[in-house]
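The following block was generated as part of the benchmark described in Methods. Ligand: manganese (II) ion.
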Amino acid sequence: MVFTIEELIGNAQTDASSGELAPVWSQFHEAVEKAGRILLSTHENPDGDGIGSQLAICEHFKRMGKEVRILNGSQIPPVYEFLDPNGWIEIYDRDRDVDWLKGCDLAVVFDLGDFRRLLKVGEDLLEHNIELAGIDHHPQMGYAAVNGTPYNFSLIDFSAPSTGTLVWQYLRSFRQEKITLSMADALYTALVTDTGSFKYDNTDARAHLMAVDLMRIGVHPYLIHMRVYEQRTHPQVKLLGTLIKHIEYSADGRVAWCVLTEERFKLAQADLEDLEGFSEFIRTIKGVQIAAVISEVSPNKTRVSMRSKGSLPINDVAEKMGGGGHPFAAGISTERPWADVLAELIPLLEAKAAQFNEAEGI
Ligand SMILES: [Mn+2]
């Protein structure tokens, strides 16, 4: 398909006042205007998208005069700390924070996919019937599949390249003043991390228009890139070496994976946070359609990160094993030993790969 620039720009959603979600965005905005105290949160093991989204909106709400706190279930990776010079991001401590939470008029949660990924914050928000807004671009799994949506305002757009993109659209439509440079840096980080620096299949005209808009505000793409991606630590590089050494293949090389046991992490003096980009790395191998990294968190806890080249959706496999995610980028976190998980997972991925049609690339 060939488009003109005008067509590409014309087709891209760049605000929240048009499109299917427009009525929900304006109801959400009314709720924001009325709210005095607002809680913001994102998923466990937060990424650049969740963190960038919540920091941008946090600044916006603070400038609106709201009493706002970011309370997350787990620590932010050190590479994103530059986005939070004021230390707005806090880890939720039930004993300390539950009374504050009870008094919230609204909670806005970002990039979840599964509400359970909020951990205790989510449990307490439900327990105390806090009005909830979910801003997300994931298919809704886990909690929603069993209980229905937990959200009063369901701001979910699967076609959005990042959750930060939805926040950007909201700010463009409903914020009176210009987006500030600190907000723009946070949103740009959300965008680059979720599109793999504009490489992944979700990179569309909207992603590039958003980048241009944020650069117009003053974002310097290389500075963000350098801070996020040119910070590999020695343990990360050592762990990458371990990964490369232990990649295994099946289904004529269409499925490739690596198991990182606790022992292998220990030898590299690395931990789970050092896995960033590893499954994408395996996907870049010629002929590989499905890539997986299986990590032993503890003897009875395993985490799997999966990527597909974009012909074979793998989130159904993730769901089947208690995980979820995007069609071509999904994961599983399960209370089972890694060898068990591997024994179930690889045949499922091989069966998937058997559907691959070489000639059509589908
Ligand atoms: Mn995301």
